[in-house]
Each structure stands twice: as structure tokens, then as C-alpha cells.
């Protein structure tokens, strides 16, 4: 029941964000790689190293809301490695080549396998669990170093057009995102605590995945990096506002 409700919300939320994005993209007249970069900066949000601590803080370590956040995190790990790869390459590569890249991503096999292992209560042997744990712990540090290198290599001479694009991205991610989430949980009639957890999960800034994709496939790296930086900085205010406005039932 919980998994079904969270997944239903997630797909409706992503679809609603996509529709809003398409409207903005058409109004702004984006072309080529900028279309994918704008989509990625809004659709991919930091549900792991930002979302999980935020969930534990906002809900006082509640196991129920944490399980919701983990489900969102797993889906947010899957989509950048499928749709995200397609998006940044669709305007310049053949579908066959893009598909080969996607099927080489380990995460698209690991997440379904994790669901199966969890469902059948299969324990991972220690000789596998230990290195997996090390790799998992290293990911966030590696991603942050990648972002730092990219930010450090930029000139930070932001044009008016780029500043406008970053502002649009941050507004869609930090303000429109939680509003869409509120509309969807209201329409679905989800329980109060679940609704609050899903709205909070939707309020976090842009994911590092958008930068990693931009760097790996050389697609609008400056916009992607600055969108992550600015949205994370602005989230100090916006996330606080979302939590304040929610009457979180603890």
C-alpha cells in the first residue's frame, strides 16, 4: 500500500513538472542541449544526501516518513540513469548508441534487484555488503568533488540570459515543485503524514546528477553547475518556508 501510493505520487508529480517545463521551454525558445539541461535541473532533485537528513530533521527521525523518502530517493536514482542520459544525448546521437549507454548503467539492474531482495528478505553476504557499503559512502564525496572542480573551473561571468535561466530553474524546482506536490497529494487524498513527507521531499534543490550528466556528456556544464549551486543556496530559505507552512503531524 505504501509503495503503491508513493510511486503513484512520484509519477504524477514528475508528469506535472514535465508539463510545466514544456510550457517554459516553448515560451523561452530553448534549443539543443539547453532543453535537456533545463529539464534535468528541475526534474532531478537532491533526494539523497539532502533529502534524507532533511526528512529526519523535519519529522524527528520518524521511520515511516524515512521509508517514504528512501522510495523517492531510489526512483530519483533510477531516472537520471535512464531518461537523463537520453535527454542530454537525444539532440546529437543515434537512439541505438544512447540505448547502449543506458543499458550499461548498473543502477537500472541494482534497484529492481534490491526490491526483490527486500521482498524475499534475502540478506547480502558480508563479503559483498562491505565493499558495496564503501562504494555507497564514497559516492556523495566523489559527486561533491566533481561539482567543486566544475565550479572552480568556471569564469562566473554570468550573462543576463544565463542568470534568467538559472532563476527560472530555481523557481520551478524550489517553489513550483512543492506547490505541485501539494496539489497532487490533495487530489489523491493521501494521509496527512505521508502528504507532508512527500511535499518536503519535493522541496529540495537540484540534484548533483544533473551536473554529473552535464560533465560526462559535455552538455551545458556551466548552467548545470550554477543551477545546483544557486538552488542549494536558495533552498536555505525556501525549504525552511515549506516546513514552516506545513502543519506536520508528529
Automatic annotation (TrEMBL):
GO cellular component, one term: plasma membrane
Phosphoprotein keyword on record: no
Localization terms from the record: Cell membrane
GO BP annotations, alphabetical order: transmembrane transport
Tagged with keyword Lipid biosynthesis: no
Membrane protein topology class: Multi-pass membrane protein
Keyword terms of this UniProt record: Cell membrane, Membrane, Transmembrane, Transmembrane helix, Transport
Name of the protein this chain belongs to: Membrane transport protein
Organism name: Insulibacter thermoxylanivorax
Source taxonomy: Bacteria, Bacillati, Bacillota, Bacilli, Bacillales
Amino acid at each position: 500500500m505504501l509503495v503503491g501510493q508513493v510511486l503513484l505520487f512520484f509519477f504524477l508529480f514528475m508528469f506535472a513538472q514535465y508539463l510545466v517545463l514544456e510550457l517554459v521551454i516553448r515560451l523561452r525558445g530553448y534549443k539543443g542541449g539547453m532543453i535537456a539541461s533545463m529539464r534535468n535541473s528541475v526534474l532531478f532533485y537532491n533526494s539523497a544526501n539532502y533529502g534524507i537528513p532533511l526528512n529526519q530533521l523535519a519529522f524527528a527521525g520518524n521511520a515511516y516518513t524515512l521509508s517514504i523518502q528512501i522510495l523517492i530517493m531510489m526512483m530519483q536514482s533510477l531516472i537520471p540513469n535512464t531518461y537523463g542520459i537520453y535527454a542530454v544525448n537525444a539532440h546529437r546521437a543515434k537512439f541505438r548508441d544512447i540505448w547502449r549507454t543506458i543499458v550499461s548503467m548498473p543502477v537500472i539492474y541494482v534497484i529492481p534487484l534490491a526490491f526483490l531482495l527486500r521482498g524475499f528478505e534475502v540478506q547480502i553476504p558480508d563479503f559483498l555488503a562491505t565493499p558495496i557499503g564503501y562504494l555507497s559512502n564514497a559516492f556523495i564525496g566523489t559527486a561533491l568533488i566533481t561539482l567543486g572542480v566544475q565550479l572552480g573551473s568556471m569564469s562566473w561571468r554570468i550573462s543576463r540570459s544565463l542568470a534568467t535561466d538559472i532563476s527560472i530553474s530555481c523557481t520551478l524546482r524550489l517553489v513550483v515543485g512543492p506547490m505541485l506536490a501539494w496539489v497532487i497529494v490533495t487530489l489523491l487524498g493521501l494521509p496527512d503524514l505521508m502528504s507532508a513527507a512527500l511535499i518536503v521531499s519535493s522541496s529540495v534543490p537540484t540534484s548533483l546528477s544533473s551536473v554529473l550528466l552535464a560533465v560526462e556528456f559535455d552538455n551545458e556544464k556551466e548552467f548545470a553547475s550554477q543551477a545546483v549551486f544557486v538552488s542549494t543556496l536558495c533552498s536555505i530559505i525556501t525549504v525552511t518556508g515549506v516546513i514552516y507552512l506545513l502543519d506536520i503531524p508528529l
